[in-house]
Amino acid sequence: MVRMIVRHRGCTPTIDPTATVAPTAVVSGDVTLGPGVRVLHGAVLTAEDGRIAVGADVVVMENAVVKARKGHDVEIGDSVVIGPHVHLNGAHVGDECFIATGAALFPGAVLEHGCEVRIRGVVQVNTTLAAGTVVPIGWIAVGTPASTLPPDQHEEVWAIQQGLDFTGTVYGVERGASMREIVRGQSDFYAAHADDVVVG
């Protein structure tokens, strides 16, 4: 596989001359990479009708996925590490944050300055972490202000999460929509990749 810089929905990535994108990475759509950014092997930054803005001296490690959608832009501040296999979707990440291996940040999540989301931690939709917050290994942050709970407290997490409109935020449908409705909408939306153009 060759590094792919992709024009998507008419938008071409803007990459600072001091940034580097590994030969097996993908940068697609309305993406801006700032000075000193490093996008490592297998990472994908894809702006799906939204915008991704990455600050200075950010490292996006192997196989991370950073995705923006309409209404859920991604903003990543300066001096941030996005660890291997991270899923970062429609979130805002402040300066000097550390997102560890396998963490997941969902649309509408906001991490203020200096937060840490440790290995396999989750920040749910529409959840805000105050500056300096740490989400422990495997724990879940949910709500605004965030409650941080261990995974064995599913009922407590679910009680908060129900009010955060996951299906509306992520899929743009009412809660209770069928999988056929959700997947048809996703299929139609992603069909726009048929018009992608590799530009670099």
Automatic annotation (TrEMBL):
UniProtKB keywords: Transferase
GO function terms (MF aspect): transferase activity
Record carries keyword Iron: no
Name used for this protein in its record: Carbonic anhydrase or acetyltransferase, isoleucine patch superfamily
Organism, scientific name: Demequina mangrovi
